[in-house]
Amino acid sequence: MTQPEPRHGLIRTVVPPAVSLALHSTVLLTIVALGARDRAEYLSDDGNLSDVTSLSDDPTARRSIALDPPAPEIKPADPDPTPSDIGTPDPTDQPAHATDDPQPEPVDLTGLSTTLATVETGSILAGGAAPDNATRIFASTPGGANRPAPAASFAGLRSQAASKIVYAVDASGAVVSSFTFLQEKLVQSIDRLGPAQRFNVVFFHDVVGRDESEPPYSALSGDQLTPAIPGNQAAAAAWIESIAPAGRSDPLDGLRPALAMKPDVVFLLSTSIPRTNAEWGAGRDAILEELDRLNPVNRRTGKRPVVIKTIQFLREDPSGLMRDIAMIHGDGEGSHRTLTVDQLRDEPDELPEVAVDPTDPNSELVLAAAAARLGTAERDGSVLAALYAAPLPDQRHAAETAARESLELLSRFENTTDLRTLMLRARAAIILAMLTPDERTRTALARTALTNAQNTQLTDPKAETARRITRLLALSLLGEHEAAARDARELVEEIARTDPAPADLAEPVLAWARVAHDGVSRSEAADAIASVARAQTLDSDPLWAHTLAVARARLALSADPPSARAFDEILALLDRDDLIADDTARRSMVFSTISAVAEGRDLDWPRFPAQATFAHAIDLGRSVSGRAGAIELLVRIADNPAAGTLRPEALWEAAILRRLDNTAIAQRDASTLLARRAREHPESPRGADALAAAINEPRATDGELPESFELDLVKRAIESFPDRPEIDIWRIDYAKRVSGMARLDALEPVAPGTRQATLAADLYFPASRSLRAGASPTQRLALLERAVAFARRHAHPEWAPLAADLAEEAAESNPATSARLAGSLLQSPDTLKRIPGGADRMTIVNARAKRALGDDAGAFELVRDLATRLEASPDRPRAFWHAWTIMLEILADRADDASRTGARAHLARLRILDPNLGGPPFESRLSRVADSLDSAP
């Protein structure tokens, strides 16, 4: 299996300076290992101070003990005859057990003294034989090889018993801000699979510039399912972590390869992407039709081969496509779920608790586990964002989950004076306090943090810095703003006097900026940030750059009035490809950051740069109550020439928000915005999409929009985007709204051989006949020529009668064309059957054309044979009289006496057959022949 390049996201791309930055956030966790201090005093229950002895520094006491004995290795009951290529464990490995010694010595975790910024969770496991991810160790469950396949679950949806599972996951740019959640849920689900099950993962996204020979998806193990054994699960987790979201998405790109693997169940997970495309892929109906072909109903059982369950991530899909897929291809109620951020926050991770008795020496491992929970969120920057920046949804979730799990583990030690427990509890509590919106809960958590961080002094400078930061943050949340700002300033000044490295001042300065409460303290904190920011080592770190930009924005927005340039540094991150490599994903992250920083602030948005206003408008539009305000801001951006390339996007977003109100007026407004976008920015990306959407919008309003409005939209689309796939649909739509020559002009370019061609013909021929009915001979001839060309191009049956009409009309005015058409028709007996008058009529036309061309002999020969054949006909049809009229006219024009004598004889015979000489127009023409013969000398 080829491993993709590591992804470069904000949370994962942290260069070495970020480790230094995280150092201040994580040094308090080193207390789990250090334990050395000059003095540690705590208040006992009766108010007296009690000493706490330090951890043993005896190096002989250091050893690693697993939280639980590692589960025995499990092999699949029926292994795949083709060896898996993703890390099958060596069956000779024997996991080390922590229970060899019935009385384990107390553990001095000095091995963690390099801080958890550089220590993986797996380092606390025994023997190194187990996988290096403690989460997967906790999630694994022992079981026999003959155990039947269990149900599979993913993000709260469960399947029936399934042996083969495929996860099809949206990896487009639309999920960038929540992709860590997706990865987390995916890894959890895979870790819960049993060894009797097989699985694969498909990430689908169509990236701009993709080589067409490469598929728009990435699969974990090609087109094969792989056994759910620990080695493969670990390798899958590593691969999942490497995927970076980018581009657009179409669920069929994931479902096609997923269904081709013939699983029992497919979990399809995506997020709503109204800003990624006007509609998903080829459209809802086309997707459902294709999916029905890929996963058809078995006529005998009434079931489909594969159950598809869908998870709509973070917000409901307005198209309803995901719900429709689950309804049609699922296994009943519970096949679809919309998973919001709030639900994610409350979603259990389904990891079993670590069963350790607090009185047992192994309780040291509970503390290590608590430290590891926080350490993971510290290392990826989630805690840093939670405390000092504006955390994105995945950062908030990671930090909150880590803090809650840590507090849950530490709840086993309610009545303790253990320094390590108190400091871990303080850190976890302040993280949750900074994140919770509920004031009462925030106050309670802040008190917990303050109580646990009080009355302690640590000799390790970095650990002491972490304690003081926790304390001052708690004071600020409890309303002690002056004390918090004073403590922050003192902490920064003390550290500055020691000639520190820039990274040593990073978190204290951020904490100062966070608690600054008035103009003076904000100004001082801003100066401190500027001073630290000038250090090149920190400026080169994307995590620091992001956090610093947020801190400065907070300070600038807290001024009176807020600075109009408050968001400049956050917007500057748009140029930092080391932050996130993908431009679309980076832009989404920056806009989300601006929205998070501005949350809850009443700002005069037109004063701010257009990009900042745009970010706020997008966030505002997420709620029904904020939708109108968001549209107003977006229209202002569209009206602002300085907004540049953001103007067409603002119109697009405003139209999407407006059309969410399903009324005739709202749909008309949405169409107006989209039409404006296409008119003012035709060359911008999605210009054609905008106009196409504008045209489609009125269909939902039952014709309540003005006809002129819809007509203008369709006309503009035809003129501006002739290469669009919808062009023939637009032409027909336009033709229905116009008449006369305009209808013919619209329909003639329609491509043949399609359903649209049939509709075009149904409109074209009646319109052409109507126009010919009142036209002059010249106009009628031109219309017939166009109709024949249209019919011939579409191979339409109407071609034969139209060609006959054209040949007849052109016999004198354009005899060459007439003769060619008549001769061609006479060569096809099948065609002649569709022409009124058939071969006789075309013979007459051909003779007329030849005579007009001066070929009297050729014309005479044609009609002579016809007249001879029809002589015996009892009713003597019009063709008989027409043929004799042409022959007698030719004879009368000849100068020789024999021809004239013969003409007189035939004319007399014809009068005997019918005194009226066949009636008009032949009677008048033959009378002229008689006059001509009588006047001849």
Structure description:
- The chain has 937 residues and is mainly α.
- Helix content is 53%, strand content 6%.
- It contains 39 helices and eleven strands.
- Strands 5, 6, 7, 8, 9, 10 and 11 form a seven-stranded mixed sheet that branches. Strands 1-2 form a two-stranded antiparallel sheet. Strands 3-4 form a two-stranded antiparallel ribbon.
- The relative contact order is 0.06.
Which secondary structure elements does this structure contain, and how are they paired or packed?
Elements: H1 16-26, E1 41-43, E2 49-51, H2 134-139, E3 151-154, E4 157-161, E5 164-170, H3 179-191, E6 198-204, E7 217-219, E8 226-227, H4 230-242, H5 251-260, E9 265-271, H6 284-294, E10 307-314, H7 321-329, E11 336-340, H8 341-346, H9 363-379, H10 382-388, H11 393-410, H12 419-435, H13 439-453, H14 461-477, H15 481-496, H16 502-515, H17 519-533, H18 536-539, H19 542-558, H20 568-572, H21 583-598, H22 610-620, H23 627-639, H24 646-659, H25 664-680, H26 687-696, H27 707-720, H28 727-737, H29 741-747, H30 755-773, H31 777-793, H32 799-809, H33 815-826, H34 829-832, H35 838-852, H36 856-870, H37 878-893, H38 897-913, H39 922-935
Parallel strand pairs: 5-6, 5-9, 9-10, 10-11
Antiparallel strand pairs: 1-2, 3-4, 6-7, 6-8
Helix pairs in contact: 1-9, 1-14, 1-16, 3-4, 5-6, 6-7, 9-11, 9-12, 10-11, 11-12, 12-13, 12-14, 13-14, 14-15, 14-16, 15-16, 16-17, 16-19, 17-19, 19-21, 21-22, 22-23, 23-24, 24-25, 25-26, 26-27, 27-28, 28-29, 28-30, 29-30, 30-31, 31-32, 32-33, 33-35, 35-36, 35-37, 36-37, 37-38, 37-39
